[in-house]
Amino acid sequence: MLLRWLEFVLAGFAVCGVAYYALCIWSAVAFWIEVGPRAASRFKPGVSILKPVHGTDPGAYESFRSHCLQQYPEYEIIFGVNDLSDAAVPLVEQLKREFPDRAIKLIACPQALGMNRKVSNLVQMLPAASHEYLLINDGDIRVPQDYLCRVMAPFSSPSVGLVTCLYRGLAANTLGSRLEALGISTDFSAGVLTARLVEGGIRFGLGSTLAFSRKALAAIGGLEPMVDYLADDYELGERIARAGLQVVLADVTVETLLPAYNFRDFLLHQMRWARSTRDSRPRGYAGLLLTFGLPWALLTALLARGHGWSWKLLAVAAAARLLMALFLGVGELRDRQVLRDLILLPLRDLVALGVWAASFAGHKVKWRGTYFILEDGKLRPAA
Prior knowledge:
- The structure is a single chain.
- This protein is of the alpha/beta class and about 375 residues long.
- It has helices at about 1-35, 60-65, 90-100, 115-125, 145-150, 175-200, 215-220, 230-240, 265-280, 280-285, 295-305, 310-330, 335-340, 345-360, and strands spanning about 45-50, 75-80, 105-110, 135, 140, 160-170, 210-215, 245-255, 365, 370-375, 380.
- The strands form two sheets. An eight-stranded mixed beta sheet has the order 3-2-1-4-7-6-8-5, with helices on both faces. A three-stranded antiparallel beta sheet has the order 9-10-11, with helices on one face.
- Strand 9 (about 365) and strand 10 (about 370-375) form a beta hairpin.
- Helix 1 runs parallel beside helix 12 (about 310-330) and helix 9 (about 265-280) crosses helix 14.
- It is globular, with a radius of gyration of 21 Å.
- The mean pLDDT is about 95.
Protein backbone atom coordinates (compact mmCIF):
# COMPACT_ATOMS: atom_id res chain seq x y z
CA MET A 1 0.00 0.00 0.00
CA LEU A 2 2.85 2.36 0.91
CA LEU A 3 4.60 1.71 -2.41
CA ARG A 4 1.36 2.36 -4.26
CA TRP A 5 0.96 5.66 -2.46
CA LEU A 6 4.58 6.59 -3.28
CA GLU A 7 3.95 5.77 -6.94
CA PHE A 8 1.17 8.32 -7.15
CA VAL A 9 3.14 10.95 -5.21
CA LEU A 10 6.05 10.66 -7.66
CA ALA A 11 3.64 10.65 -10.59
CA GLY A 12 2.14 13.87 -9.24
CA PHE A 13 5.61 15.40 -9.04
CA ALA A 14 6.22 14.32 -12.65
CA VAL A 15 2.96 15.95 -13.81
CA CYS A 16 3.98 19.18 -12.04
CA GLY A 17 7.33 18.94 -13.80
CA VAL A 18 5.66 18.64 -17.20
CA ALA A 19 3.56 21.72 -16.39
CA TYR A 20 6.77 23.52 -15.43
CA TYR A 21 8.37 22.63 -18.78
CA ALA A 22 5.37 24.16 -20.56
CA LEU A 23 5.66 27.28 -18.39
CA CYS A 24 9.34 27.60 -19.27
CA ILE A 25 8.55 27.49 -22.98
CA TRP A 26 5.85 30.13 -22.55
CA SER A 27 8.22 32.33 -20.51
CA ALA A 28 10.71 32.30 -23.40
CA VAL A 29 7.96 33.19 -25.87
CA ALA A 30 6.78 36.02 -23.60
CA PHE A 31 10.33 37.37 -23.29
CA TRP A 32 10.80 37.36 -27.06
CA ILE A 33 7.43 39.06 -27.69
CA GLU A 34 8.04 41.74 -25.07
CA VAL A 35 11.73 42.42 -25.49
CA GLY A 36 13.57 41.35 -28.47
CA PRO A 37 15.27 42.36 -30.39
CA ARG A 38 15.04 45.95 -29.15
CA ALA A 39 15.33 48.76 -31.65
CA ALA A 40 18.71 50.51 -31.82
CA SER A 41 19.00 53.18 -29.15
CA ARG A 42 20.68 56.57 -29.35
CA PHE A 43 21.36 56.42 -25.62
CA LYS A 44 25.07 55.55 -25.45
CA PRO A 45 26.62 57.01 -22.30
CA GLY A 46 30.23 56.42 -21.35
CA VAL A 47 30.78 53.08 -19.60
CA SER A 48 33.49 51.75 -17.29
CA ILE A 49 33.79 47.95 -17.60
CA LEU A 50 35.13 46.44 -14.37
CA LYS A 51 36.66 42.98 -14.73
CA PRO A 52 37.99 41.42 -11.51
CA VAL A 53 40.20 38.51 -12.55
CA HIS A 54 41.96 35.73 -10.67
CA GLY A 55 44.33 33.61 -12.73
CA THR A 56 43.47 32.64 -16.29
CA ASP A 57 40.33 30.87 -17.44
CA PRO A 58 40.15 28.80 -20.67
CA GLY A 59 40.38 31.11 -23.68
CA ALA A 60 40.99 34.09 -21.37
CA TYR A 61 42.75 36.28 -23.93
CA GLU A 62 40.02 35.95 -26.55
CA SER A 63 37.44 36.72 -23.88
CA PHE A 64 39.33 39.86 -22.82
CA ARG A 65 39.85 40.81 -26.46
CA SER A 66 36.14 40.64 -27.27
CA HIS A 67 35.60 43.61 -24.95
CA CYS A 68 38.06 45.69 -27.00
CA LEU A 69 36.08 45.18 -30.22
CA GLN A 70 32.89 46.93 -29.13
CA GLN A 71 31.07 49.12 -31.63
CA TYR A 72 30.48 51.76 -28.97
CA PRO A 73 31.63 55.39 -28.79
CA GLU A 74 33.17 55.74 -25.33
CA TYR A 75 34.18 53.13 -22.77
CA GLU A 76 37.11 51.91 -20.73
CA ILE A 77 38.11 48.49 -19.39
CA ILE A 78 39.53 48.16 -15.87
CA PHE A 79 41.09 44.87 -14.81
CA GLY A 80 41.61 44.18 -11.12
CA VAL A 81 43.93 41.55 -9.64
CA ASN A 82 44.91 40.69 -6.07
CA ASP A 83 48.55 41.35 -6.91
CA LEU A 84 50.68 41.96 -9.98
CA SER A 85 52.05 38.40 -9.96
CA ASP A 86 48.65 37.10 -11.07
CA ALA A 87 48.74 34.97 -14.24
CA ALA A 88 46.25 37.32 -15.92
CA VAL A 89 48.61 40.30 -15.83
CA PRO A 90 50.68 39.34 -18.94
CA LEU A 91 47.44 38.91 -20.88
CA VAL A 92 46.29 42.41 -19.91
CA GLU A 93 49.67 43.83 -20.94
CA GLN A 94 49.39 42.01 -24.27
CA LEU A 95 45.90 43.48 -24.70
CA LYS A 96 47.28 46.99 -24.16
CA ARG A 97 49.88 46.41 -26.87
CA GLU A 98 47.32 45.08 -29.36
CA PHE A 99 44.85 47.91 -28.66
CA PRO A 100 46.99 50.99 -27.85
CA ASP A 101 44.08 53.36 -28.51
CA ARG A 102 41.69 51.56 -26.16
CA ALA A 103 41.45 52.81 -22.56
CA ILE A 104 42.66 49.79 -20.57
CA LYS A 105 43.72 49.98 -16.94
CA LEU A 106 45.21 47.38 -14.61
CA ILE A 107 44.66 47.84 -10.88
CA ALA A 108 46.30 45.91 -8.04
CA CYS A 109 43.84 45.27 -5.20
CA PRO A 110 45.92 44.06 -2.24
CA GLN A 111 43.33 44.53 0.51
CA ALA A 112 41.05 41.68 1.58
CA LEU A 113 37.99 43.62 2.71
CA GLY A 114 35.88 40.50 3.21
CA MET A 115 35.50 36.83 2.33
CA ASN A 116 34.50 37.58 -1.27
CA ARG A 117 37.74 38.73 -2.88
CA LYS A 118 35.94 39.54 -6.13
CA VAL A 119 33.79 42.19 -4.43
CA SER A 120 36.79 43.30 -2.38
CA ASN A 121 38.68 43.92 -5.62
CA LEU A 122 35.73 45.75 -7.15
CA VAL A 123 35.60 48.17 -4.22
CA GLN A 124 39.27 48.97 -4.82
CA MET A 125 38.76 49.28 -8.58
CA LEU A 126 35.87 51.74 -8.39
CA PRO A 127 37.99 54.88 -7.76
CA ALA A 128 39.74 54.29 -11.11
CA ALA A 129 36.45 54.30 -13.05
CA SER A 130 35.83 57.46 -15.07
CA HIS A 131 32.22 57.10 -16.20
CA GLU A 132 28.77 57.39 -14.64
CA TYR A 133 27.73 53.95 -15.83
CA LEU A 134 29.50 50.85 -14.58
CA LEU A 135 29.46 47.30 -15.96
CA ILE A 136 30.81 44.29 -14.10
CA ASN A 137 31.30 40.91 -15.71
CA ASP A 138 33.39 37.86 -14.91
CA GLY A 139 36.82 37.30 -16.41
CA ASP A 140 35.64 34.31 -18.47
CA ILE A 141 32.85 36.16 -20.29
CA ARG A 142 33.10 36.56 -24.09
CA VAL A 143 30.82 39.13 -25.75
CA PRO A 144 29.58 40.06 -29.27
CA GLN A 145 30.54 43.39 -30.84
CA ASP A 146 27.14 44.99 -30.18
CA TYR A 147 27.16 43.93 -26.52
CA LEU A 148 27.52 47.39 -24.97
CA CYS A 149 24.93 48.93 -27.30
CA ARG A 150 22.36 46.32 -26.35
CA VAL A 151 23.13 46.28 -22.63
CA MET A 152 23.04 50.05 -22.27
CA ALA A 153 19.89 50.63 -24.36
CA PRO A 154 17.41 49.99 -21.49
CA PHE A 155 18.99 52.79 -19.44
CA SER A 156 17.22 55.30 -21.68
CA SER A 157 14.40 54.78 -19.17
CA PRO A 158 15.18 56.44 -15.81
CA SER A 159 13.32 53.67 -13.95
CA VAL A 160 15.97 51.09 -14.91
CA GLY A 161 18.54 50.47 -12.19
CA LEU A 162 20.33 47.35 -13.41
CA VAL A 163 20.68 45.43 -16.67
CA THR A 164 21.82 41.81 -16.77
CA CYS A 165 21.80 39.08 -19.45
CA LEU A 166 21.63 35.37 -20.11
CA TYR A 167 24.66 33.33 -21.13
CA ARG A 168 25.62 29.99 -22.63
CA GLY A 169 28.56 27.81 -21.63
CA LEU A 170 31.12 26.64 -24.16
CA ALA A 171 32.03 23.15 -22.94
CA ALA A 172 35.42 21.48 -22.87
CA ASN A 173 35.57 17.85 -23.96
CA THR A 174 34.85 16.28 -20.57
CA LEU A 175 31.59 14.86 -19.28
CA GLY A 176 31.44 17.31 -16.37
CA SER A 177 31.94 20.32 -18.63
CA ARG A 178 29.33 19.12 -21.13
CA LEU A 179 26.78 18.44 -18.39
CA GLU A 180 27.27 21.93 -16.97
CA ALA A 181 26.90 23.59 -20.37
CA LEU A 182 23.74 21.58 -21.02
CA GLY A 183 22.30 22.64 -17.67
CA ILE A 184 23.04 26.32 -18.27
CA SER A 185 21.30 26.37 -21.65
CA THR A 186 18.35 24.08 -20.98
CA ASP A 187 17.59 24.59 -17.28
CA PHE A 188 19.25 27.62 -15.68
CA SER A 189 18.16 30.05 -18.40
CA ALA A 190 14.65 28.60 -18.27
CA GLY A 191 14.52 29.26 -14.53
CA VAL A 192 15.55 32.89 -15.02
CA LEU A 193 12.92 33.50 -17.69
CA THR A 194 10.23 31.72 -15.68
CA ALA A 195 11.03 33.79 -12.58
CA ARG A 196 10.76 36.90 -14.74
CA LEU A 197 7.30 35.84 -15.99
CA VAL A 198 5.87 34.60 -12.68
CA GLU A 199 7.24 37.41 -10.52
CA GLY A 200 6.50 40.19 -13.00
CA GLY A 201 10.18 40.90 -13.57
CA ILE A 202 13.48 39.81 -12.10
CA ARG A 203 14.92 40.94 -8.79
CA PHE A 204 18.45 39.59 -9.16
CA GLY A 205 21.48 39.92 -11.38
CA LEU A 206 23.63 37.37 -13.19
CA GLY A 207 27.42 37.47 -13.04
CA SER A 208 27.61 37.39 -16.83
CA THR A 209 26.63 41.09 -16.85
CA LEU A 210 25.81 43.61 -14.12
CA ALA A 211 25.37 47.11 -15.56
CA PHE A 212 24.20 49.99 -13.37
CA SER A 213 24.70 53.68 -12.71
CA ARG A 214 26.62 55.27 -9.85
CA LYS A 215 23.29 56.72 -8.70
CA ALA A 216 21.79 53.24 -8.37
CA LEU A 217 24.90 52.02 -6.56
CA ALA A 218 24.71 54.94 -4.11
CA ALA A 219 21.05 54.12 -3.46
CA ILE A 220 22.03 50.71 -2.03
CA GLY A 221 25.04 51.91 -0.05
CA GLY A 222 27.73 50.86 -2.51
CA LEU A 223 29.44 47.49 -2.88
CA GLU A 224 31.00 47.37 0.59
CA PRO A 225 27.97 45.71 2.29
CA MET A 226 28.37 42.72 -0.06
CA VAL A 227 32.02 41.85 0.64
CA ASP A 228 31.09 38.71 2.60
CA TYR A 229 28.31 37.42 0.31
CA LEU A 230 28.94 34.55 -2.09
CA ALA A 231 26.13 35.43 -4.53
CA ASP A 232 27.16 39.06 -5.02
CA ASP A 233 25.39 39.19 -8.39
CA TYR A 234 22.09 38.15 -6.79
CA GLU A 235 22.58 40.59 -3.90
CA LEU A 236 23.32 43.53 -6.20
CA GLY A 237 20.19 42.97 -8.26
CA GLU A 238 17.97 42.28 -5.25
CA ARG A 239 19.13 45.43 -3.45
CA ILE A 240 18.67 47.62 -6.50
CA ALA A 241 15.15 46.20 -6.99
CA ARG A 242 14.41 46.79 -3.30
CA ALA A 243 15.46 50.43 -3.80
CA GLY A 244 12.54 50.79 -6.24
CA LEU A 245 14.50 50.53 -9.48
CA GLN A 246 13.82 48.09 -12.30
CA VAL A 247 16.08 45.13 -13.11
CA VAL A 248 16.02 44.37 -16.85
CA LEU A 249 17.16 41.38 -18.87
CA ALA A 250 19.00 42.52 -22.01
CA ASP A 251 18.29 41.04 -25.43
CA VAL A 252 21.84 39.73 -25.80
CA THR A 253 23.44 36.42 -24.85
CA VAL A 254 27.10 36.18 -23.90
CA GLU A 255 29.39 33.16 -23.60
CA THR A 256 31.52 31.65 -20.87
CA LEU A 257 34.22 29.04 -21.55
CA LEU A 258 33.84 26.22 -19.04
CA PRO A 259 36.83 24.42 -17.51
CA ALA A 260 37.52 20.78 -18.35
CA TYR A 261 35.87 19.62 -15.14
CA ASN A 262 36.36 16.09 -13.96
CA PHE A 263 33.14 14.69 -12.51
CA ARG A 264 34.06 15.50 -8.90
CA ASP A 265 34.87 19.14 -9.69
CA PHE A 266 31.65 19.40 -11.67
CA LEU A 267 29.66 18.18 -8.64
CA LEU A 268 31.47 20.58 -6.31
CA HIS A 269 30.70 23.48 -8.65
CA GLN A 270 27.06 22.45 -8.91
CA MET A 271 26.83 22.17 -5.12
CA ARG A 272 28.23 25.67 -4.69
CA TRP A 273 25.61 27.04 -7.07
CA ALA A 274 22.86 25.03 -5.38
CA ARG A 275 23.68 26.11 -1.84
CA SER A 276 24.13 29.71 -2.96
CA THR A 277 20.68 29.69 -4.59
CA ARG A 278 19.19 27.93 -1.55
CA ASP A 279 20.44 30.72 0.71
CA SER A 280 19.45 33.54 -1.67
CA ARG A 281 15.96 32.33 -2.67
CA PRO A 282 14.93 29.69 -0.10
CA ARG A 283 11.25 29.42 -1.02
CA GLY A 284 11.87 29.35 -4.75
CA TYR A 285 14.66 26.83 -4.25
CA ALA A 286 12.41 24.52 -2.22
CA GLY A 287 9.85 24.79 -5.04
CA LEU A 288 12.36 23.23 -7.44
CA LEU A 289 11.11 19.92 -6.07
CA LEU A 290 8.26 20.18 -8.57
CA THR A 291 10.38 21.05 -11.61
CA PHE A 292 12.24 17.75 -12.14
CA GLY A 293 9.61 16.24 -14.43
CA LEU A 294 11.81 13.77 -16.31
CA PRO A 295 13.62 12.30 -13.26
CA TRP A 296 10.34 11.92 -11.36
CA ALA A 297 8.75 10.20 -14.37
CA LEU A 298 11.74 7.83 -14.64
CA LEU A 299 11.50 6.95 -10.94
CA THR A 300 7.74 6.49 -11.25
CA ALA A 301 8.18 4.00 -14.12
CA LEU A 302 10.72 2.03 -12.09
CA LEU A 303 8.51 1.95 -9.01
CA ALA A 304 5.40 1.03 -11.04
CA ARG A 305 7.39 -1.82 -12.68
CA GLY A 306 6.68 -0.48 -16.15
CA HIS A 307 2.88 -0.45 -15.96
CA GLY A 308 1.37 1.06 -19.11
CA TRP A 309 0.28 4.33 -17.52
CA SER A 310 3.79 4.96 -16.15
CA TRP A 311 5.37 4.49 -19.59
CA LYS A 312 2.88 6.98 -21.04
CA LEU A 313 3.75 9.48 -18.31
CA LEU A 314 7.46 8.97 -19.00
CA ALA A 315 6.94 9.50 -22.74
CA VAL A 316 5.04 12.75 -22.13
CA ALA A 317 7.67 14.00 -19.67
CA ALA A 318 10.54 13.11 -22.02
CA ALA A 319 8.85 14.83 -24.98
CA ALA A 320 8.11 17.96 -22.94
CA ARG A 321 11.66 18.10 -21.57
CA LEU A 322 13.12 17.62 -25.04
CA LEU A 323 10.94 20.38 -26.46
CA MET A 324 11.90 22.72 -23.63
CA ALA A 325 15.61 22.00 -24.15
CA LEU A 326 15.41 22.68 -27.87
CA PHE A 327 13.24 25.78 -27.48
CA LEU A 328 15.38 27.36 -24.78
CA GLY A 329 18.83 26.06 -25.62
CA VAL A 330 18.78 26.13 -29.41
CA GLY A 331 15.99 28.62 -30.07
CA GLU A 332 16.57 31.25 -27.37
CA LEU A 333 20.30 30.91 -26.60
CA ARG A 334 21.48 29.70 -30.04
CA ASP A 335 23.53 26.97 -28.37
CA ARG A 336 24.31 24.30 -30.99
CA GLN A 337 26.02 22.12 -28.37
CA VAL A 338 22.55 21.22 -27.07
CA LEU A 339 21.88 19.18 -30.21
CA ARG A 340 25.10 17.22 -29.71
CA ASP A 341 24.45 16.54 -26.03
CA LEU A 342 20.71 15.85 -25.95
CA ILE A 343 21.46 12.21 -25.12
CA LEU A 344 22.96 13.42 -21.81
CA LEU A 345 19.76 15.18 -20.75
CA PRO A 346 18.38 12.36 -18.51
CA LEU A 347 21.76 12.00 -16.75
CA ARG A 348 22.07 15.75 -16.30
CA ASP A 349 18.57 16.00 -14.79
CA LEU A 350 19.11 13.03 -12.45
CA VAL A 351 22.36 14.60 -11.23
CA ALA A 352 20.56 17.93 -10.75
CA LEU A 353 17.89 16.26 -8.63
CA GLY A 354 20.58 14.56 -6.54
CA VAL A 355 22.48 17.82 -6.04
CA TRP A 356 19.25 19.61 -5.09
CA ALA A 357 18.48 17.01 -2.42
CA ALA A 358 22.07 16.88 -1.12
CA SER A 359 22.30 20.68 -0.90
CA PHE A 360 20.04 20.64 2.17
CA ALA A 361 22.48 18.40 4.03
CA GLY A 362 25.13 21.02 4.79
CA HIS A 363 26.58 24.50 4.32
CA LYS A 364 30.09 23.83 2.99
CA VAL A 365 31.06 25.13 -0.47
CA LYS A 366 34.29 25.20 -2.43
CA TRP A 367 35.18 28.46 -4.16
CA ARG A 368 38.47 29.34 -5.84
CA GLY A 369 40.13 26.29 -4.31
CA THR A 370 39.10 27.11 -0.72
CA TYR A 371 36.33 25.63 1.42
CA PHE A 372 33.89 28.00 3.13
CA ILE A 373 30.79 27.72 5.28
CA LEU A 374 27.81 29.48 3.70
CA GLU A 375 25.14 30.77 6.08
CA ASP A 376 22.46 33.34 5.27
CA GLY A 377 24.27 34.05 2.02
CA LYS A 378 27.55 35.00 3.75
CA LEU A 379 30.87 33.20 3.68
CA ARG A 380 33.09 32.30 6.61
CA PRO A 381 36.20 30.09 6.55
CA ALA A 382 35.57 26.39 7.02
CA ALA A 383 37.19 25.03 10.19
